[in-house]
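We read letters as residues; the fold follows as tokens. A sample entry reads:
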Amino acid sequence: MKKHILTVILSTSLASVAHAAPTAFDFKDPKGVNAIQFSLDSMLEPIAGTAGGVAGTVTFDPAAPGATHGKIVIAAKSLVVPNATMNEHLVSPNWLDVATNPEIVFELVKLEGATTTGNVTSATATGKFTLKGVTKEIKVPVKLTYLADAFGKRINKPEVKGDLLVIRGEFTVNRGEYGIQPGKNEDKVNTEVKISLAIVGSAPKA
């Protein structure tokens, strides 16, 4: 009897450890719909656009969210706005210079003040944000939604096992601080760039 109880306790402990193991989520979306939105609410010409070239890996453990680490990478050439001429300016050397700086990166340094309700963790993400070759440390309020066993449902293949992690957040950067036309065209192109994201990472299981 004692041996049976010991076996049950040991099995339960091992199951808890396995459940608490951190998981790496790939943000290169198999459906190709991940995108980040940006806007510059200028006085004369409010501008809004998207960036679809999302990639990167974030390792997350719902039992220990403070240990979250990883980075999100955006292909700079994937940034688009509705106006074709503005698009040409956007990728040019005077603006993003995508030929020289092909990636926009947020690398997580730490996740602070994490509180979890249900499957949603709210926290402040401190990270190194790189834009046009300039890296600065910024803080971003984020919400991480952990969706266990939801991968197959998302790709319409319920027989495929795996988890999902949805990251939501919003922050603002000053374009001039990243060498993007500092002090210029401020009537048409706001100095503040608002960036918002709601992106999904996948962790398929064998």
Notes: DSSP finds three helices and eleven strands in the chain. The radius of gyration is 21 Å. The CA atoms of residues 30 and 155 lie 8 Å apart. The chain has one domain: 21-204.
